[in-house]
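Query form — protein Response regulator transcription factor

QUESTION: What is the three-dimensional structure of this chain?
INPUT:
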Amino acid sequence: MRILVAEDERFLADLVAEGLRGQAMAVDVAYDGAAALERLAVNDYDVLVLDRDLPGVHGDDVCQELSRRGAQVRILMLTASGEVHDRIDGLNLGADDYLSKPFSFEELAARIRALARRSGQPLPPVLERGGITLDTAHRRAYRDSRPLRLSLKEYAVLEVLMRAQGAVVSTEELLERAWDEHIDPFTTAVKVTMSKLRTKLGDPPVIVTVPGSGYWM
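ANSWER: The structure tokens for Response regulator transcription factor are given below.
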């Protein structure tokens, strides 16, 4: 799951990003509206966590620009105001959800997961394929009811593969969905993580390598 946090309070932005990474999400950070739009133009994000009062390009203008582009990213708007008319304004601008500051991190993460499930083809919170069960709400994985002890990146890669529902997922897409913008595109991270994940999933194998194309379950 790929998330962009657009928040000008750097300490809060970095704190939220670090917490979400601990939930096996790939997270990029922008500290103003212009930087957020630049990242949104080149990366595909599942959810944008958008502070409404961004400097430079206001959060409202970011929302309107994304609507003009026809962007598919789901928007969770953050604001210091919890007034009803402010929430209505944000939703009318194109936000999918609204959260007032201060907020509970657990609620923020739950809302992000709920929005991500609605991006693209809606999927249930519990995914099942090839004897693998993935509980995305609680970040737990099982094989034939046996708990799997996965690292954050192994879990993230498995989630991307399961969300593809049998479609082939390329190495580039795995880098896009499970790592952030700082990853070296020539890294062997996908190959190494995939090897470890296959070992933990056990036999019979459920992840197939498609030469020249990627991987599928």
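ADDITIONAL NOTE: Residues 105-118 form the longest helix (14 residues).
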